[in-house]
Design brief:
The complex is a heterodimer of chains A (89) and B (434). With 89 residues, chain A is mainly alpha-helical. Chain A has a domain at 19-78: Alpha-Beta Plaits (2-Layer Sandwich), CATH 3.30.70.20. Chain A is built from 4 helices and 2 strands. In chain A, strands 1-2 form a two-stranded antiparallel ribbon. Chain B folds into 3 domains: 2-107 and 238-305, FAD/NAD(P)-binding domain; 121-235, FAD/NAD(P)-binding domain (3-Layer(bba) Sandwich); 318-433, Enolase-like, domain 1, CATH 3.30.390.30. Helices cover 26% and strands 29% of the residues of chain B. Chain B has a 5-stranded parallel β-sheet with strand order 3-2-1-7-19, with helices on one face. A 5-stranded parallel β-sheet of chain B has the order 9-16-10-11-12, covered by helices on one side. Chain B has a 5-stranded antiparallel β-sheet with strand order 22-23-26-25-24. Chain B is globular, with a radius of gyration of 23 Å. The chains are: A mainly alpha (89), B alpha/beta (434). The A-B interface holds A 1, 5, 9, 12-13, 15-17, 20, 25-34, 36-37, 46-47, 50, 64, 67-69, 71-74, 76-80, 82-83, 89 and B 10, 40-43, 46, 51-53, 56-59, 291-292, 299, 315, 318, 320-322, 327, 329, 354-355, 357-364, 389, 392-393, 396, 428, 431-432.
Chain lengths: 89, 434
């Protein structure tokens, strides 16, 4: 992979982070709480995962701590509605 | 209406939430023998590694629990009397119910070798066990772990994170051979070895050795001995069916329930690890011991108890876990069984899907990436995704949605196919169109 594409990937990443929000997949979640524990501003991310709703929170920095720390890949960033989770509860 | 729930795990909590959507005023009593209340049992693994504090394991605030409006009792149910609609409880007055949910879960199969009662022989079932382990897990000490599945590996990783020397006993010639293929087992094993774990193959524990009541070592069948301060075992789990059996409920490996989670007694339900649920699509009764099915079963049971008939439908097997630091998703059929449906197995690594559409670029990378697909006639039957998880969400939807993959089947099966690219392309077109 060339240096240029690495930069592009980094740029892509920043673009998604700045314009996206965190979306949980409840079927993967075991409510361990690592996400909430690591949120620098204390958003209860786990509770969003329980309800299966995106973390749309005015104070969310989209820093990515919760996404990166989750041991089960529950959380991801979403920019478009490409991967919208259908909540049936 | 008096509802009684036995067991304070996710099935019990999901049942209470469901009851409250239908019945705001009925009396709910929840009784549990675990003094720690409702916490994430799978999360105990991350408490062991030190990734979180034990206080972080409790998903519900006291305000959340107050809103559910229930009475929480700590105690041990000693008898269920179905004819009298009554529970007998150790050292407490009996409890009358109109609807009863048994959601007591499962527990570790006890170790049955000489010396198993010694101090320093540990398992990982409850918060108490985790606290007990952490009291003994000290830097520089040595632990031996016995068991072939996920929990055993969690124990290994917990001890490593605590700076201990770890011996890991495998009964066969590789890790978790009934789910992983050889390449995947080796990835896990190499990852463990890199962390300093000493693996012992074909290692059968026959005795725990001790002195003054404490573990000092173990003996293997081949006569070899290992010195250790702790022996942790995770050799399987067993549903806690004793109460139900004694009460005359129909029990196989778990408590047998119909698709509405009802036992052979009309007012008694069971959900979660303890329930063996009838699956009308196969005509068999299935035990599940995962968090998500337990939650779904608890929810369905709660609705049925409150009078809203709701069958539970088992979804495609799906589990996410972390094996030696690698997030691993297992979807559908990947292990032994149902091989006759598989027309091909496709492997790939993530290099082909590094360049993905915007929406999934944000997950951090892993050193190792491994993908195995089980390709059926028209659908994907299963997948295992280790490490990089970018493809995991699309694959979950393709497999659980039984999407028709005939348009890409041939190209997937070409040797060295760019599996990631093919899947992403297929997924973006079809999901966007749906």
């Amino acid at each position: 992979m060339g240096l240029l594409s690495l930069f592009k990937r980094d740029a892509d990443k920043h673009r998604v982070l700045s314009s996206g929000h965190v979306v949980p997949d409840p079927a993967r979640c075991v409510q361990c709480g690592i996400c909430t524990y690591n949120c620098p501003i204390g958003i209860d991310v786990r509770e969003h995962a329980w309800r299966g709703v995106p973390v749309i929170h005015s104070q969310c920095l989209t820093c990515g701590e919760c996404v990166a720390r989750c041991p089960r890949g529950v959380l991801r960033f979403e920019k478009t509605d490409l991967f919208t989770v259908k909540v049936d509860e | 209406m008096k509802y009684v729930i036995v067991g304070y795990g996710v099935a019990g909590v999901a049942a209470m939430e469901a009851i409250r959507t239908e019945d705001k005023t009925g009396e709910i009593t929840l009784i549990s023998d675990d003094p720690h209340g409702y916490y994430s049992r799978p999360g105990l693994a991350y408490y062991l590694t030190g990734e979180l504090h034990d206080r972080a394991l409790y998903p519900k605030s006291s305000e959340d629990l107050r809103r559910l409006n229930f009475i929480a009792l700590q105690g041990r149910v000693t008898k269920i009397l179905p004819k009298q609609h009554t529970l007998e409880i150790n050292n407490k007055p009996p409890l009358i119910y109109d609807r009863l949910l048994i959601a007591v879960g499962s527990q570790a199969i006890p170790l049955k070798v000489p010396g198993a009662e010694l101090d320093g022989v540990v398992k990982l079932d409850h918060m108490e066990d985790a606290n007990h382990i952490l009291k003994h897990a000290r830097r520089g000490k040595t632990a031996v772990v016995s068991g072939g599945g996920i929990t055993a590996l969690e124990l290994v990783e917990g001890f490593i994170a605590r700076g201990m020397k770890v011996h890991y006993l495998l009964r066969g010639d590789r890790y978790w051979s009934n789910v992983l293929d050889e390449q995947e087992s080796r990835i896990v094993e190499q990852s463990l070895q890199k962390e300093g774990v000493i693996l012992h193959y074909h290692a059968e524990l026959v005795e725990v050795l001790g002195k003054s009541g404490r573990v000092t070592g173990i003996q293997l069948q081949d006569g070899k001995t290992l010195k250790c301060d702790l022996l942790a075992y995770a050799i399987g789990i067993r549903p806690r069916v004793d109460l139900a059996k004694e009460a005359g409920l129909e029990v196989d490996r778990g408590i047998l329930v119909d698709e509405c989670l009802q036992t052979n007694e009309p007012n008694i339900y069971a959900a979660g690890d303890v329930a063996q649920v009838y699956d009308p699509s196969t005509g068999t009764s299935i035990l599940d011991s995962l968090w998500s099915p337990a939650r779904q079963q608890g929810r369905a049971a709660g609705l049925n108890m409150a009078g809203k008939k709701t069958p539970y439908t088992k979804s495609v097997p799906f589990n996410v876990t972390r094996l030696a630091g690698l997030t691993t998703t297992i979807i559908g059929t990947v292990g032994r069984g149902r091989d006759e449906d598989t027309v091909g197995i496709v492997r790939g690594d993530s290099e082909t899907w590094r360049q993905l559409p915007d929406a999934i670029v944000a997950q951090s990378g892993f050193e190792v990436n491994n993908l195995r697909l089980l390709v059926g006639e028209r659908t994907l039957l299963g997948a295992i995704i280790m490490g990089d998880q970018k493809l995991s969400f699309p694959l979950e939807k393709i497999i659980t949605g039984h999407m028709d993959i005939s348009p890409i089947r041939a190209s997937l099966l070409i040797p060295n196919a760019k599996v990631g690219d093919i899947l992403v392309d297929f997924w973006t077109k079809n999901w966007a169109a749906a």
